[in-house]
Write a structure and sequence with these properties.
This protein is mostly helical. The chain has two helices and two strands; from the N terminus they run H-E-E-H. The chain has helices at 3-10, 57-89; strands spanning 33-37, 52-56. A two-stranded antiparallel sheet has the order 1-2. The longest helix is centred in the last third of the chain and has 33 residues, at 57-89. Keywords: Endonuclease, Hydrolase, Nuclease.
Length: 91
């Protein structure tokens, strides 16, 4: 599904912030329209048209960065938990 098709289906506003996107902006610029995958395939989602929306490049990037930060924090928490359990069983 293309940006044009998604725009005709969902309108000209960003899925995340609700503000209008600039469809004249070159690809990759903060206010340009990008295709956002609501359920990322790397997280078990299926790449289908119903999981796609339009979002500002900046909103899309920020969402992905926050998700990556959360994943790193979780992995750190798991490692600390495992280390803590290991020290308890070593006693």
């Amino acid at each position: 599904m293309s940006v044009r098709a998604l725009r005709s289906t969902f309108g000209p506003n960003c899925h995340w912030c609700g503000l209008a996107m600039d469809f004249e902006e070159p690809h990759g610029r903060p206010e340009s329209a990008t295709i956002e995958h609501l359920v990322d395939s790397t997280l078990g989602g299926v790449r289908s048209q119903k999981h796609r929306r339009l979002a500002h490049a900046a909103c899309n990037h920020a969402r992905n960065e926050f998700r990556m930060q959360a994943e790193r924090q979780f992995q750190s928490w798991i490692a600390a938990r495992q280390a803590s359990e290991k020290t308890l069983t070593d006693k």
